[in-house]
Amino acid sequence: MKRQIKKIESLKEIAPLIAAVQIRDIRLVEAGVSTSVRSATEAGEIKFEVATSADVKEYNKDEGIFWVLAQIKIRLIPVEPEKDAVVSVSAAFEIKYSLPKELRASQKQLNTFARINGVFNAWPYWREFVQNMVARMNLPTITLPVFRLEDTTKIRRKKPDKNIR
Q: What is the rounded distance in angstroms from the CA atom of residue 57 to the CA atom of residue 94?
């Protein structure tokens, strides 16, 4: 229950930012893909494991521009225990946001915004990237669910792998 209360307070704290920011640019800055199988049959039944993180990388107060680095990694792992991941896809997206001139934000507010909205805003690009990469591996298409602030799908968010930069 305390976690839910904290999320609500965090959302209230950044509500003016959420209502006012604009995305100016989003670009892929790092990516990695790998597979250990040649077919869906070889992979067997799988489940998703997703790790996300996002941080403010730079804030130019004079211009009202800030950049967020959103990192996402998915591992498709067999349902059978003792087997390694069959597919791993990681990506980092840099998102450039602008604030209206009259709105000033503290570093704490920007960091909270980055953690909540950074991944949320990168998610559609991420979904397309994963779908494209898995198809290029000649494996069946994977359609990831929409991103939710609360985890209501099979996706489990964990701390990101230290290899994601």
A: 9
Its sign, for the CA torsion 157, 91, 132, 23, is positive
CB 93 within 8 A of CB 28: yes
Question: Domains in the chain and their CATH numbers?
Answer: 2-158 (3.10.420.10)
- 133/88 Cα distance (integer angstroms): 10
pLDDT in tens, 145-157: 888 765 433 343 3
pLDDT in tens, 5-40: 455 567 788 888 999 999 999 999 999 999 988 887
Tokens at residue 6, please?
Answer: 């904290």
What pLDDT is recorded for position 142? Answer: 81
SS3 at position 158: strand
Secondary structure (DSSP) of 7-37: HHHHHHHHHHHHHH-EEEEEEEEEEEEEES-
Q: Bridge-partner residues for 158, per DSSP?
A: 51
Tokens standing for residue 69: 């680095």
DSSP per residue over 43-105, as a string? H-SEEEEEEEEEEEEEEETTTTEEEEEEEEEEEEEESSTT---SEEEEEEEEEEEE--TT---
